[in-house]
């Protein structure tokens, strides 16, 4: 047990530091193309901080452990929106732009709803089985490609980022990306193996360990990025990071995992998916409740409260 805990911590450290180097390197490369702060958060930073979820889920899928793959993404997206954005909103009330309100937040809701419809197609439509097939995975990856293309081509000259921030030579930035990916792969492997070992020894289900420890652990890069953005008063970077991470988790992480091995939803409850949808909708209600077009401290506290209630429900029903 002690060895598993040490390996878990070592894997988590590698995952977090690997993601940090990956994000810094990728952001430096992206800045050369003059992308806006929100687009950098939505794409490069969002995908970089989602890399831990991708590694953990791909490894889980390759080993035939669908509870790890699906539970990790469901738990991560819930944690990202309710806890991380909630805490960030408490630290720094964030403005929600017309573009966020009309396109980005509705896109997050639509992709979350699509994920639920595909995952529970037997329950809802009476076809197939509950879960993601390889065809579903390919469809999600196609949407991901289109979404990436649209994100990188939609910026206007007025939205371009300034030259502030970390400046790195291209060679050093590429080395950071490669090193970050290597740390993510190795650390993710350690993390999955040790977390599963601890869960089995404690008699806890794979689904619970995925939705709590794995989800929280692999979301640490998002948490660190958003808190840092709050301190630096860069709310759009924080918001873009979370929306981008959630979208990538569904489209790229679960789409790719389903291609590796079809994913069953047997270990995912209606409560889990209901809270996932509520978390996406709660972000949209921030545009209307309290200070309009602002994720303020009251909104942030409300998001954290929903997360705390969900975690209490999970623990009580162990």
Characteristic terms for this protein:
two-stranded antiparallel sheet, 318 residues, 13 helices, mainly alpha, two-stranded antiparallel ribbon
Task: Please give a structural write-up.
- The chain is mainly alpha-helical and 318 residues long.
- It is 78% helix and 3% strand.
- It contains 13 helices and four strands.
- The protein has helices at 2-31, 37-49, 51-62, 66-91, 98-119, 121-125, 134-153, 170-202, 206-218, 220-231, 235-260, 270-285, 297-316; strands at residues 94-95, 131-132, 263-264, 294-295.
- Strands 1-4 form a two-stranded antiparallel ribbon. A two-stranded antiparallel sheet has the order 2-3.
- Helix 7 (134-153) packs antiparallel against helix 11.
- Mean pLDDT is 82; it is low at 156-164.
Estimated share of beta-strand residues: under 5%
What's the helical proportion of residues? Answer: over 70%
**Secondary-structure class:** mainly alpha
User: Can you write the helix and strand succession as a string?
Assistant: HHHHEHHEHHHHHEHEH
Main beta sheet: strand number and arrangement? 2 strands, antiparallel
Widest beta sheet: strand line-up: 1-4
Low-confidence segments: 156-164
Report the mean per-residue pLDDT as an integer.
Answer: 82
Radius of gyration: 18 Å
Number of helices: 13
What best-fitting shape do the alpha-carbon axes yield?
A: globular
Q: Give the CA-CA distance, first to last residue.
A: 20 Å
- Number of DSSP-assigned strands: 4
